[in-house]
Amino acid sequence: MSDMKIVVVGAAGRMGQSLIRAVTETHGIxxxxxxxxxxxxxxxxxxxxxxxVGRNGVEISSDALAAFAHADGVLDFTVPAASVEFSGxxxxxxxxxxxxxxxxxxDDEKHFDAASRHARIVKSGNMSLGVNLLAVLVKQAAKALxxxxxxxxxxxxxxxxxxxxxxxxxLLLGEAAAQGRNVALAEKAVKVRDGITxxxxxxxxxxxxxxxxxxxxxxxxxxxxxxxTIKIAHRATDRQLFARGAVKAxxxxxxxxxxxxxMLDVLGLKTx
Length: 272
Fold this sequence. Notes:
This protein is of the alpha/beta class. It has 10 helices and 12 strands. A 7-stranded parallel beta sheet has the order 3-2-1-4-5-6-12, with helices on both faces. A 5-stranded mixed beta sheet has the order 8-9-7-10-11. Strand 10 (about 215-225) and strand 11 form a beta hairpin. Helix 1 packs across helix 9 and helix 4 (about 80-95) packs parallel to helix 5. The two termini are about 35 Å apart. The mean pLDDT is about 95.
């Protein structure tokens, strides 16, 4: 089988550069295009040089349509509006679309579902093995620990430049907890507390968001009972781990049927 030809969108950003480095170091996949928004200062620059891996001959372009038409897949850690647009292009080209974008709305998710009729969509709030394993453990713990005995709180901290809250990873973990409790996260999530809030509602799933410095990502889920607290946690120390996970997802989806997948599928961690 020939190498998978991959497009990196948002190529000049921190994650875009990490993705280019991950593609460069991975066997079986090659960078075919690097895309940035129209008018960006980096257009025409060598993408490998910008990412710190040396010249690779792939200049940064704004022509996503042409890039997708000649590729097998796209790696996308951009913004929701752009990811929705890219999913439509991926569906037209019938290629793999790996989405690490966070902050997406329910309407955005409907667009991704529609695109998955023709594209292989792999979307996750976090691409790391550790976090996805954590989600499985959270689901099991939430199922085992009754709501009347243990309260659930999801804590997360990221760098000061992150624009969405709670993080996609925090929501992924909250969803795992909700599945374990067999409840809808949208109905049980408490994302803001301020003023006189009253006693904590039984079976609610709380979120606490911290922002500051250069923290890549720290997440923990607390199961707080009477006289004891259980904490399950994950700390990311290198942004490159997310890029490697995205590349792994693209290679996994290369020969799959069109559909909607997540990292639990990629890592073989899917449970009922």
